[in-house]
Amino acid sequence: MSELKDRLREDMNNARRAHDKLRTLVLGTTISELKNREIELGREATDTDVIEVVNRAVKKRREAAEQIRAGGREELAAKEEQEAEILGHYLPQPLTEAEVRAAVRAAIAAGARSVGEVMPRVMPLLKGRFDGREANRIVREELARP
Question: Band of the pLDDT at 138, cuts 50, 70, 90?
Fold first, then answer.
């Protein structure tokens, strides 16, 4: 069983005992999404699967916060961001832009000459730790350098 999955369950139980309704709701929803993912996969979730589910949940909440804020509902947007922050504690430490640039430069030095060649080499390193769109932007910038 996944250590991260165990940690989610334990933290949810602690939140229930502490009567922390928001944390209980967020963790309960995430555990439910994780169970659905396990059903899809037909196996027990690994830490990588858990990170993928949590990452998707964080991204969904951040996008919702942007849309809600655009609609003028600041208090609801703040709640969505708070939920994303709670889940963010279960993700691995994010990479810095400098670390991503170094990985991209290494892929280019190894012979990759296009976005289609660089991205498959760097994405396994970035998965769950850096935004793919930002990585694509960095790849394009590095390929354009003389």
Answer: very high
Listed in sequence order, the DSSP H helices in 21-146 are 21-41, 47-70, 74-88, 97-109, 115-126, 132-144
* Tokens linked to 98: 């400098």
d(CA 36, CA 5): 13
Vertex 102 angle, CA 115 and 138, to 5°: 40
Tens digit of each residue's pLDDT (9 = 90 or more) over 85-137: 999 899 888 888 999 999 999 988 888 888 888 999 998 888 778 888 889 99
End-to-end CA distance of the chain: 48
- In this structure, are 82 and 115 located in the same domain? no
pTM, 2 dp: 0.73
Measured distance CA(28)–CA(12) in Å, rounded: 7
Task: Note whether 70 and 8 are same-domain residues.
Answer: yes
Domain count, the chain: 2
The tokens of 66 are what?
């942007």
> How far apart, in Å, are the Cα atoms of 121 and each of 97, 116, 139?
16, 9, 11
